[in-house]
Amino acid sequence: MNTLWSYLAVTALTAFVTLPSLLGAARDRAIDRELREAAARAEPVPNDRPTPRSTAPSEPAPIPYTTAA
């Protein structure tokens, strides 16, 4: 009879430890599924704005050559 109680105790402790992890994984999968469905339903947004032009020079300015005296 003690062996039965030992098995039940180990099973209960294992369930107690692993249950939060399993519930979290199930919740994450549900959230991922909702995100995938929302992304599939979303319409692509057209890019009506023109791309801004850069005012920076295309190449860095050359460093003047000087000799140390």
Structure write-up:
The protein is mostly helical and 69 residues long. The protein contains 1 helix and no strands. The protein starts with a helix and ends in a 28-residue tail after the last helix.
Biggest sheet features: none
- Report the order of strands and helices: H
Q: Report low-confidence residues grouped into runs of 5 or more.
A: none
* Overall strand count: 0
Instruction: Report Rg.
Output: 32 Å
Morphology call: elongated
Distance between the termini: 97 Å
Q: Structural class of the secondary structure composition?
A: mainly alpha
Instruction: Give the amount of beta strand, in percent.
Output: under 5%
Average pLDDT, rounded to a whole number, is: 83
Helix content: 55-70%
Number of helices: 1
Give the helix/strand layout:
Layout: H1 2-41
Summarize the structure.
With 69 residues, the protein is an all-alpha fold. It has one helix spanning 2-41.
Can you tag this structure with a few keywords?
elongated; about 70 residues; 1 helix; single chain; about 0% strand; mainly alpha
